[in-house]
Design goal:
WH-like_DNA-bd_sf, binds zinc ion, 5 helices, WH_DNA-bd_sf, three-stranded antiparallel β-sheet, Arc Repressor Mutant, subunit A, three-stranded mixed β-sheet, alpha+beta, 154 residues
């Protein structure tokens, strides 16, 4: 389970997030900071309902929806669909910019707990397209057992 950040890490993170928001021309607001804080402490991608649960009454549903949409548009978060087709969100690589995602990595989805992980270290294969086809993005999902579910099986 997630442990609370100690205050030094917490402070450094907040500065980082302030910078991230400002460099994307987004006003620094408490709800935006809270969302970034939660997403960045998770090892797996997180869905809107999960975020709602963690945020409690801090942010209403419409605000959260708008925050996620703007973060996705700005290249701060990318969206991955889990096995139920629910959208989950993970933090982007620094290469992502407005309207331009460069998260070219494999996503691992656990068939037991449905957690989505970004496998940043695995690069995608080169796709040789037929002539006159042009490539915009590649999405590869690997499905199997995650570390936590694996250890329960053994
Ligand atoms: Zn991205
Ligand atoms: Zn699992
Ligand atoms: Zn990812």
């Amino acid at each position: 389970m997630d442990t609370e950040n100690n205050s030094i890490i917490g402070k450094k993170k907040t500065e980082e997030f302030n910078h991230l928001l400002r460099s994307n021309k987004l006003k620094v607001t408490q709800p935006r900071l809270r969302v970034l804080e939660i997403v960045s402490t998770k090892t797996a991608a997180i869905s809107q309902p999960e975020l709602e649960k963690l945020l409690g009454a801090d942010i209403d549903r419409v605000t959260l929806y708008r925050i996620l949409a703007s973060f996705e548009e700005k290249g701060i978060l990318h969206k991955i669909f889990d096995l139920n087709g629910t959208a989950t969100y993970a933090i982007c690589s620094t290469k992502c910019t407005e309207h331009h995602h460069h998260d070219q990595h494999v996503h691992f989805i656990c068939s037991v707990c449905n957690s989505v992980y970004c496998l940043n270290e695995i690069s995608l294969p080169k796709i040789n397209l037929p002539s006159n086809f042009s490539l915009h993005s590649i999405a590869i999902n690997a499905v199997g057992l995650c570390k936590n579910c694996q250890s329960e099986v053994q």
